[in-house]
Amino acid sequence: MSMLDICVLPGDGIGPEVTDEAVRVLDWFVAKRGVQLRMTRHLFGAASWAAQGTTMPEATWDAIMRADALLFGAVGSLDQTHIPPEERRKGALLRMRKALDVFANVRPVRAWAPLAESSPFKARTVAGADLVFVRELTAGVYFGTPRGIETQADGTRRGVNTHTYTEAEIARAARFAFELARTRRNHVTSVDKANVMEAGRLWRDVVTEVHRADFADVTLEHMLADNCALQLGRTPTRFDVIVTDNLFGDLLSDCAGAINGSLGMLPSAALSAPGPDGRRRALYEPIHGSAPDIAGKGIANPLGAILSAALLLRWTAGRPEEADRLENAVEAALAAGARTADIALPGEAVLGTRAMADAVLAAL
Ligand code: NAI
Ligand code: MG
After folding, report:
1. SUPFAM superfamilies, alphabetically (predicted)?
2. How many CB atoms lie within 10 A of CB 102?
């Protein structure tokens, strides 16, 4: 495979801290395992607003559109009110996801055996949990129109968002999930609120139709989103692939973060349909945000970002054996006792961001 051009967007808060470590780990694969990546860093968001007076410099947007894949940290700062709304929209992650058409957001969640005691759930509840969300990422209530805050005739305000899904948007997410299930344990749970939402009713109908037409070999169950939130804590081992809409996928994957005790453990890959060359556009990022409460302290858990780099090796670089090698190294580092503060038990020795990545590199 030829040299891949990776656009690195560290962003705000802990974004740069964890992205630096993911890049350092990928550098190891370039140096030692012959993975052909060229990584280039670009400025955007609040940091770029401060430096250049725009949240999305043209050079960054060009690099995003040209790249084979993006490695992304996080956006968002506590106070962005000083940035004009149109500039905030320009630098927004949602705009990037939409422009790249990365509709399938793959969010794997596994209970790491060495962390069984760090989980707020009982070890016997989470042991062996290994599931993956396919969150629809480019439609639904985050994108629907009309939207906005309007002033009503009586002078009071009304906030409006619109939850919409077309048949085509649902069908492509469903197909992606069924195909992924075939590479795993052949089970899909489709999550919606078909009982109270029209787009949810259509979601259930279309997933059922796609299943009947082309994926009858895969087991399909339907589940209401509120029950899914409960089952993720109660019996996370019952899930294989969970396909759901943009909003529920956002919330439920954070719920699943509790399986290991921290959001800092969870990676993601946002993927488009394959292009004419058979390759998917891809945006890799930890699922957490900019974590302003711990930013700048060098204590953030870099494993979500590092495991996102493993997804890049798997989906973009086409090197699944190297992705396995990296995931095994994360497990070995955890088994050797490496812990950042978010996954440590009281009294356990704690590593900073860089030292945790060093533990992974040592295992490699
Ligand atoms: P958050 O995900 O940034 O943090 C939630 C909690 O988890 C915090 O207590 C944080 O300290 C902890 N946490 C997150 N990542 C961690 C890590 N790697 N290591 C250790 N602890 C970690 O969500 P929050 O606080 O609700 O939002 C903060 C900002 O991030 C907001 O501006 C929000 O809009 C933005 N955000 C951005 C996302 C993105 O860029 N994809 C996703 C989610 C939120
Ligand atoms: Mg979220």
Report:
1. Isocitrate/Isopropylmalate dehydrogenase-like
2. 21
